[in-house]
Specification:
Number of strands: 10
Distance between the termini: 14 Å
Number of helices: 2
Radius of gyration: 21 Å
Helix content: 10-25%
Length: about 180
Amino acid sequence: MKITKFLRTAVAASALFIGIAQTANAEITTHTGNTTGGPTLDLTPWAFPGSAIPYTQYAFTVDTAGEYTFQVTAEYDAAILLFENSFDPADTTANFVNGSDDNVSSTTAAFAADLETGSTYFFIVTGSDDPEYGFYSATIGGPGLISAVPEPSTWLMLGVGLAAVGYTARRKTQH
């Protein structure tokens, strides 16, 4: 009977750690979303006419240094930005790596950037001015695996879940 409980706990813990280990790894990764109602940033330092433009951010790392491409197609006049190690929406010049406004049309943007391992990058999808927001599809591609960096709330949920599993296991062994 105790072996069965041990095996159940081991299987549950293994499943949990497998879930943690599986990140969004790919040579090409695509993200779709909507910037409507999102947090806002200030692009006036870049001569864009907006200081409250909705954006979405994607934090990631790469396992291979090299040139990566970034592109977006949107239903609005889109812009994309890349930052290294941190991103401050009030100061869009700090840690800036590269960016693009219009590529083939006003609803597309693209650029390439050399990325290094060991850094966290922030890929920002936004509009070119205040009234520009909506649905988009963004793609990142390159020579290595692209791994999403979990948000702090994800780590908090993981910790609470592990604590609950430990508490339940401890209560069962005390009875």
